[in-house]
Design goal:
By secondary structure, this protein is α+β, with helices and mostly antiparallel strands. The chain has a domain at 8-30 and 71-151. The chain contains 3 helices and 7 strands. The protein has a 7-stranded antiparallel β-sheet with strand order 2-1-7-6-5-3-4, with no helix packed on it. A hairpin with a 5-residue loop joins strand 3 and strand 4. The radius of gyration is 16 Å and the shape is globular. The structure holds zinc ion (ZN) (2 copies). One zinc ion binds next to loops.
Length: 152
C-alpha cells in the first residue's frame, strides 16, 4: 500500500429504513506517500488526523525511528455506544493506533468493516470484536451501499 497509483473509493452508505448514513472516502490517494504523510517539515498527518494530541505523539514516534505500518488510509469508524459513523484517518506506528474520541459520548471510536450481505446491501461490523453495527436512528442493521469511482 505504498503511494504512486493507489486510489481510494467513495462509498455512500445509507440505512435501508431511515436513510441515515455517511458518504465517505476510503483508502488512500496518489499524494499519500509515507514521506508526505509522516515526514518533512509539513507532514500531512496533522491535517488528516485533525487532532493535535494524536498527530504530535505519532510524529514524535516517527522521529525516533518507529516503524510505519503500510496499512494507513481513510477508514470507517463508529462509536460502540451510540453507533454514529465517522471517517477518520487510520495508521499504525509500532503499536500505536489513533484513538479518536466520539464527539457525542466518552467512548473511543472503533474501526468497522463491511460484512457480507445481498448485492448492494451490506452490514457493518466492528473489526475488533466482530459485533454488528446498527443504525443510531432506527436500530436497523442493513445498509444500501453505493460505491463510486476511484478518487486520487
Ligand atoms: Zn436507520
Ligand atoms: Zn459515542
Amino acid at each position: 500500500m505504498k503511494g504512486g497509483g493507489i486510489m481510494g473509493e467513495i462509498h455512500d452508505l445509507r440505512c435501508e429504513k431511515c436513510g441515515y448514513g455517511i458518504k465517505t472516502w476510503l483508502g488512500i490517494g496518489m499524494m499519500y506517500s509515507p514521506e508526505m504523510i509522516f515526514e518533512g517539515t509539513d507532514p500531512s498527518l496533522v491535517e488528516l488526523v485533525d487532532d493535535e494530541q494524536i498527530s504530535t505523539s505519532a510524529l514524535e514516534l516517527v522521529k525516533t525511528g518507529a516503524e510505519i505500518n503500510d496499512h494507513y488510509g481513510h477508514a470507517l469508524y463508529a462509536c460502540t455506544n451510540d453507533f454514529y459513523l465517522f471517517n477518520k484517518f487510520y495508521f499504525k506506528i509500532d503499536e500505536m493506533e489513533p484513538e479518536y474520541p466520539c464527539p457525542y459520548c466518552d467512548n473511543t471510536l472503533k474501526r468497522i468493516t463491511f460484512a457480507k450481505g445481498r448485492a448492494g446491501v451490506t452490514r457493518l461490523q466492528f473489526i475488533d470484536d466482530e459485533k454488528f453495527w446498527h443504525c443510531p436512528k432506527c436500530g436497523n442493521d442493513s445498509m444500501n451501499e453505493v460505491s463510486f469511482s476511484n478518487w486520487d
